Amino acid sequence: MPEAIQDTAIAAAAGPAFDADLLAQTAAAVRAAGSVLRERFGDVVRHRTRDELMSALAANDDAALDVLRPRLSHLRPDARWVEEELEGGALPPGEWWVVDPAEGNVNHLHGLPEWAVTATLVRDNQPVLTAVHLPLTGQTYTALAGAGAHLDGLPLRVSGTTSLGLSIVATSQARPDEDEATVRRVGASITAMLLDALVVRTSVPATLHLLNVAAGRIDAFWQFAGARADLLPGALLVTEAGGRISNAEGRPWTPESGSLLAAAPGVHAEAVATLSR
Questions:
Q1: pLDDT at residue number 222
Q2: For residues 261 and 11, is the Cβ–Cβ distance under 8 A?
Q3: Which stretches of the chain drop beneath a pLDDT of 70?
Q4: Is the pTM of this model over 0.85?
Q5: DSSP per residue over 198-243, as a string?
Q6: Torsion angle defined by CA atoms of residues 236, 241, 246 and 250, in that order, rounded to the nearest 10 degrees
C-alpha cells in the first residue's frame, strides 16, 4: 500500500465502525443523486458554443449537488467542501468532501453511458472512504480504508496478470486546457504502451478505468496531471482491492503528484518501465 494511503485507517479518528456506517450513508447519497442524473439522461444535448456547453455541464452538476450537498453536509457538518472539482494538489488539514456530482459529464450530455457520481471523504489528506455509483447499471463501488473494496457488497480484487504483454491497459486524456508538454507526454505514453501491452484503451472519465482496475477487468491505468475528484476515489478502490498506486516513475503517489499509475502488482514494474522510456 502506498505511503500516501497506508496510514488512513490509523488516522481515522472517528473509528472504523463509525466510518463503515458513514460509508453506507454516503453510498445512499450518491445513489440518490444518480437517480436525478439518470432522469436527465437520454438525447444528445446540443451546444453550438463553449458557453452553451459549460451551461449544460453546470446544470447537471447543480442537479446532482442539490441532492448530495445537504445529505453529505448532514453526515459530517464540520467537513469542508472542495468547490472546484477540477482542482488538484494537497488539501488543508481536517475533513473534506471531494465530490464529482457528474463524473464523465460530457459523456452524459452526448448520450454516452460512461458517467458516474462520486463522493470521497478525505481526512488530513488521506482518503478515508469513497462511494462511486453508476446510475445506468445500478452498480455502486465502495471502499473503506483498511476494510477493502466492494461492488454492491461483494469484495473486489485486482488482476493476477504478471505480464504487461498480456495486459489490457487504459489511460484518460489531458484536460482540454492542458499545457502542450503534458499533451505530448500523454501521446508518447500511449505509443509506448501500444508497443508493450496487449490492448490500450483511451477514454474518459478516469474513475471508470480505475474501477475496472480494482475489479480486475483491466490490469493498469495511468494518467498525467488530473484532479483530486478524478483520481482519489479510484486510488482508494484500487489500493483496497490489492493493487499498487504510484506516480508514473514508481514513486509514492499523493494528490500533489504530476502523474498516477494504478496497476495489478504483477505488472506494475513493467508499466513503470514502459512509461519511463
A1: 97
A2: no
A3: 1-16, 84-87
A4: yes
A5: SEEEE-S-HHHHHHHHHTTSSSEEEEES--HHHHHHHHHHHHHTT-
A6: 180
Contact 107, 115 (CB under 8 A): yes
Work out the burial of residue 209: count CB atoms within 10 Å of its CB; fewer than 13 is exposed, 13-18 middle, 19 or more buried.
buried
E runs forming strands in the chain: 80-81, 95-103, 116-123, 126-134, 139-144, 148-151, 154-155, 168-171, 199-202, 220-224, 244-246, 259-263
pLDDT of residue 11: 39
Q: What percent of the chain has pLDDT over 70?
A: 92
Instruction: Name the region of 169 (left: φ>0; alpha: ψ -120 to 50; beta: rest).
Output: beta
pLDDT of residue 87: 66
Q: Which three cell numbers stand for residue 223?
A: 494518467
- The H-or-E segment that residue 17 falls in is helix 16-40
Confidence (pLDDT) at 114: 97
Question: Cell 484518460 appears where?
Answer: 172
Whole-number Å distance between alpha carbons of 210 and 72: 23
* Peptide bond before residue 127 is cis, with ω within 30 degrees of 0: no
